[in-house]
Amino acid sequence: MSSSKRASSFSLQDRDLLLLRDLFESRVMTGQHVAEIHFNGRKEATKKRLQKLKEAGLITEWPRRAYEPAILFLARGGIRLLKEHGILNEYPAFSILALERRARVSNVTIRHELAVLDVKTAFHMALRDHPTLSIVEFCTWPRLIEFEARNSYGSDILVKPDGFIRIHEKEADGGLSEHAFFLEVDRSSETQDTLVAKASAYLDYYKSGNFAVRNGAYRSAFKEYPFRVLMVFKTAERRNNTAARLLQNNPPILTHVCLATIDEVLADPFGTIWIRPIDYRDAVHDSPFDGETRRGHRAYQRRAEREGFVEARIEKVGLFTD
């Protein structure tokens, strides 16, 4: 019996295909992610549907300890079902075996990808309080959104974003605005030099017009295709260190990158939680921490009082601040 016939025994729904497609792109998800993104937070309905998908051989679970939440990924039946429905035609060609191997990665990689899915889930949950906003794209498969660009060190690098987000906003006059973002979820495993190199490559991707070209426009129309880079950090200290380093870049990166802590993002990504390097510069101006923003400054030394000082003075912005 084919996977589509097996699925039909439990009345395959359009939402099932959307869920399987989402799982195909993200590689892994938890039940909580599925509940908030696809079932509007209804946990019992999610649990029942996931059980049916498991019984149909469409999804399976990553090995785990008894006290850990189940980590879901596509089973061979789910991959074949997507292929039979033509959904995989929209993606680069992969063999079934290659797609199965994609799920066999290290625990470190899995934890990072789950953190990215936590951010994606937070965005979907926040939409309930913002009826004028809609997410039209939230891709978390780096291979689908990767690009080459030149960083401020003069090197051409391949950038593999953690996510790409496209949001539509309904205007009061009936018009529609589009906002684009690339996502980087920092797990404190990369050096500050690496983060700065990525940020400068993103800026080059915009100014070179390559992002405009990717959107089907002329390179010269790059200003009509703006985007921002969202960097999410475990701690305010790590966030502030990166903001200071971005100001030291040549040229300094002032507004193209927005930074926040993971706790802030999970609480409300659409809230006034983001800081730009220029906001950090203004907050520490004429303070004992002012020197950190200047090129040639020595390596950062931990000073616990800095984080409290910055938090009290900094003017945070919303996601759609000009």
Please estimate the helix content.
40-55%
Please give the largest β-sheet.
5 strands, mixed
Low-confidence stretches: none
Shape verdict: globular
Oligomer: single chain
Order of SSEs: HHEHHEEHHHEHEEEEHHEHEHHH
Rg calc: 21 Å
Q: Termini distance?
A: 55 Å
Query: Count of DSSP E strands?
Result: 10
Output mean pLDDT. 91
Total separate domains: 2
Main structural class: alpha+beta
With strands numbered from the N-terminus, the spatial order across the biggest sheet is 4-7-8-9-10
Number of helices: 14
Overview of the structural elements:
The protein has 322 residues and is of the alpha+beta class. It has two domains: 1-104, Winged helix-like DNA-binding domain superfamily/Winged helix DNA-binding domain (Arc Repressor Mutant, subunit A); 105-322, no CATH class. It is built from 14 helices and ten strands. The strands form three sheets. It has a five-stranded mixed beta sheet. A hairpin with a 5-residue loop joins strand 7 and strand 8. Helix 3 (31-38) packs across helix 4 (43-55), helix 9 crosses helix 11 (236-248) and helix 11 crosses helix 13. The chain starts with a helix and ends in a 9-residue tail after the last helix.
